[in-house]
Each structure stands twice: as C-alpha cells, then as structure tokens.
Design goal:
By secondary structure, this protein is mainly alpha-helical. 77% of the residues lie in helices and 0% in strands. The longest helix has 27 residues.
Length: 261
C-alpha cells in the first residue's frame, strides 16, 4: 500500500475490486451458492462489506502514519474486542486467561501509544486509526458469523468485497485522493496477495486448525511488518517497542486460545 501511487483508501478500493471476477469464478467452480439468499442474509453480507470497507480505509490511512509493527498489531486487535463483546453478551466478568489477555493488551497498547506520542503526533494519530480499524474488524467478524452459516467461503468473500468496493471508492473520492494509478504492480500485489490468496487461505485454514494455531500464525504479520519497516522504510525500534508489541501479541494469543467453537 505504501508503494502504490494512488491514495491509501483508493488502494483499498483496488484491493477489493480487482479480485472480484476470480472470487466469483472460484465460488461457481466450487458450487457455492451465489443467489437466493434470505433478506436477513443479504443485509448481513452488505453490512459486513461496508464495515470491512471502513476497516480497510482506517487501516490504510493508519499504515501511512505510523510504524508497520504498530499498524499490524493494532489492526489485528479485533479478536480481543470480539472476546469482550462475548463477555458482555453473557453478562459475566472475565475469567482467568480472559482477564490476563485484557490486562496484557491494555498494558502493551499503553506502552506503544506512549512511544508514538514521544515520536510525533502523526504516529500517534496513525495508531488511533489502526485501533479504529481493529474496532471495525471486530464488528465485521460478528456480522459474518450469521452469513457464514449459509454461504461458502468464496461466495461470502466475493459478495462482501463487492459490497465494500463502492464504499471505499466513495471515501477515496470524498478525501480527494488520486484513484487511477500510473503503476499497477503494487495494487495487483495487494489485491491478489492480501485479498485473494491471504484471506482465501485464512478462511480455508479456519476449518482445519484450532484457534491457538491460527492466532500464532497471524502473529507472523506484525513480525514481518516490523522487519519490512526496518528494511524498506528505516523504522527503528527500541526495547520498549519490543516489550509493548510482545504484550499485545501475547494478548492476541491468549484471546484466540480462549475462544470456543
């Protein structure tokens, strides 16, 4: 996204728009239902697509304003929000590992926020955008919960991407971003790497591995983000940065391990 010559939100639009023909083709080849859904299912799909568009818009803006390690960690904080929502729905206090995950997440986030304030107001604002993205992503997951009972993975990904693409385009135009790129390879890599292959493999893996393994695998993202930020953009890290990221990462693992079903 940083290497694209379009705006950050416009890059998210191309991420959702470019893989659509392939997604619908994969859904058709795998004989997944593409029509005839109930009104409730359609509403859930559209709402999920809109929320995912807001998630990507906030995340892409945040990626351009903060360090990649922070962006990937805060952008994946949705699992903690889902856990808290589950506790509220059950009307009970957090227990054992749940409380430990919340405390670790808040402590780690406080360290990283403090470091961002020390660096500049811009990185702090970027962290806030990435946290907002994690908030939207949590509701995206909750909205998909009902829709996934009726739709296959490719069908759901295709329709939700189609619902979210116009929202991202509208936001990009409202912000005055350049939409049509001069160089296509960063956007093609983003579309087919992140959306088609990345999300496709993640959805597939959810059926074959327990939550703890999925949570540990997702932690490859901030590790790679930190290395990419250091190698490509000269982003330096201190021991406090590593400590804060480790605590948020541990919280994500604990939250995933505590999931049920």
């Amino acid at each position: 996204m940083r290497l694209a010559d379009s705006g950050p939100v416009a890059a998210g639009f191309w991420r959702l728009f470019l893989p659509l023909p392939v997604l619908f083709l994969l859904a058709r080849v795998n004989r997944q239902q593409l029509s005839g859904f109930s009104r409730v299912t359609w509403l859930a799909i559209i709402a999920a697509g809109v929320i995912f568009a807001l998630d990507l818009a906030a995340w892409h803006i945040g990626i351009g304003m903060t360090r990649l390690g922070n962006a990937t960690l805060f952008g994946n904080s949705g699992s903690l929000i889902v856990m808290v929502w589950g506790l509220i729905a059950l009307r009970r206090r957090p227990r054992g590992a749940e409380l430990l995950a919340l405390l670790a997440a808040m402590t780690g986030a406080a360290i990283l926020f403090g470091r961002s304030i020390e660096l500049s107001a811009e990185t702090f604002a970027g962290d806030l955008f990435c946290n907002l993205a994690g908030f939207f992503y949590a509701f995206y997951i909750l909205l998909l919960h009902r829709a996934r009972e009726r739709l296959g993975s490719w069908s759901l990904l295709a329709w939700s991407s189609l619902a979210g693409a116009p929202v991202m385009l509208a936001i990009a135009l409202a912000l005055g971003e350049p939409v049509w790129p001069q160089v296509w390879w960063p956007l093609l890599t983003l579309a087919f790497g992140s959306q088609l292959i990345g999300q496709g493999l993640l959805v597939y893996a959810l059926k074959h591995f327990p939550p703890l393994i999925i949570g540990l695998a997702l932690l490859c993202q901030p590790v790679i983000g930190v290395l990419a930020g250091w190698y490509a953009f000269g982003e330096m890290l201190t021991l406090w940065d590593v400590a804060g990221m480790a605590m948020v990462a541990a919280a994500l693992v604990i939250a995933r391990a505590g999931e049920r079903g």
